[in-house]
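Example 341, ligand iron/sulfur cluster.
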Amino acid sequence: MSKGRVTSGMRPTGSLHLGNLLGALDNWVRLQDEYECFYFIVDWHALTTPGGGDAVGFENVAFLRTRVKEMAIDWISAGLDPEKSSIFVQSHVPEVAELHLLFSMITPLGWLERNPTYREMVQGYKIESPSYGLLGYPTLQAADILIYKGDFVPVGRDQEAHVNMTRDLAQRFNSLYGKDVFPITKALLTEVPKVPGLDNVEKKMSKSTGSYIALSDDAGATTGKIKSMFTDPQKIRKDDKGHPDGCVVFAFHGIYNKDEVLTVRSECEKGARGCVDCKMQLAERMNMALGPIRDKRMELESKPKVINEILRAGAEKAQGVARQTLQEVAEVMNLPPKEIF
Ligand code: TRP
Ligand code: SF4
């Protein structure tokens, strides 16, 4: 049956888009049938950066609750199934904070300072005075994973350094206290389709540049965004010969219209296809594929109590596991029990 435990999380900093769906969520959904999965919305991690404007952070907490709710709705609409997986909010299992504290005692500062993601975040968000929490981000992530004894973590390449540090911490803990309390977690780096931004095939779809299609966009909004996608600027009339490889619309045909992508290419290159028609065809395909997710979204939006119940039950299950792990940790670290004398 279960091949082991899968753990993964996402920061509720903004709305989910097609890049998240195709890059992570679809994969999480598949893993549910083979592994015991723990999927959590990492609200504490969202507070490691300042935020601002639309993005949640410690200086901008106004939308934090809404984002958590939206993320839960997005996840479940995309196919995460509370019957199969534990779906919950990181901070609803406060045991994670306790393990994070204990891990912070055995995390060498050098590991954190050398973490490439830390440097990227400081530069990317132009953070003048990085916080203690930001530096400790990977230690908190290790606690997220190891408290549930995660064997596998499905993440993108950008998270490899964090998973490696999780492994190093598990190893260090196990060897310091002479017992294999924690598994040596592996990253599951699955090949995912490259999802471009709407204005440039070379760039990834991203929240920060604003060029994305959100899961919460309806069919009309999606069609509108497809109409504004970047195409071959040299192709003005239908009979102009086009260059599909530089065209964002073509890249999306490769994802949502696989059956006809060869035809699209040859017609474009021959000058037998106009960009407007090409876009309309894509819009039809994409709206068809996204229809079930949108329907589920609408249904959940109208029943917020269902989300409460899913997150509550998920946290409860996760907390049972977390408490057990902490018990083992306290034991090997010789932390005093209440009835010490
Ligand atoms: N750092 C991850 C990201 O930005 C989010 C995350 C937090 C996570 N805790 C985790 C991912 C535990 C996997 C497992 O994508
Ligand atoms: Fe892109 Fe289609 Fe226009 Fe070719 S015809 S440039 S693939 S939108």
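Summary: The domain at 219-297 is CATH 1.10.240.10 (Tyrosyl-Transfer RNA Synthetase).
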